[in-house]
Amino acid sequence: TEFNISCRYRGVFHVEKNGRYSLTRSEAVELCRALNSTLSTLEQLKKAHELGFETCRYGFVVGYVVIPRINPYHLCAANHTGVYKLSANTSDRYDAYCYNATETREKTCEPIEGLDTSVLDNQGEIVIDNADGSRYNADGTRLSGESSTSGADDENVGSGSTHDTTPMDTSIKRSSPSYYGSSTPVSHLPDHSSGGGEKESPKKDSDNEVSPVSPDISLATTADDFPEKDGRHYSASTS
């Protein structure tokens, strides 16, 4: 079992298990506990986001499935910025956003060197891939070589390492915009309401136009913005 762990922003960090979208909500809670953390609340994630925390991954927080976005990108939260909340398929499998209350620094990429396997169902071999490229077994033994999430080739494509890296959808090229480090002001989007089925219908203002960044207008994604089970991720769009 392999866990990819991002940098921590005021204690909040992103975790993948064996690649993207493999955790149920209960497994996400369990994994955060194993990492001496709890599942992040929305408010904790928002504070991290204000410090520059950004990913291109749907992940569980308490009560929601979200993506924190700073830079708009069409394959990440349908080009939205802010803390984007998924309003459909929220009982499916996603990643996890954990919170370590003892980590008070604004940002740190120091490695996590072990975890508590007693709270995990899986007692097999575990590898922790850290944002700085270091790799550890669950018992704290450092492994040789760097993780696949580090290196110049991955620069600007991931989730919180020193190179701003985390494995992402194969359809997103390495030249895509950085997922971290921007101090660009952000607007938090309101909750999105489903328009029926998998697709959601945007609400329009009196001029029948939809602005992708206005905090006063509810926006929605097409079904293609939802994670694909076969590993593909289709280009999202907004109405």
From TrEMBL:
Top-level taxonomic group: Eukaryota
InterPro entries: C-type_lectin-like/link_sf (IPR016186), CD44_antigen (IPR001231), CD44_antigen-like (IPR043210), CTDL_fold (IPR016187), Link_dom (IPR000538)
Boundaries of every Link domain copy: 11-100
Pfam family, one: Xlink
Name of the protein this chain belongs to: CD44 antigen
Primary localization class, coarse: membrane
Membrane topology: Single-pass type I membrane protein
Organism: Probosciger aterrimus
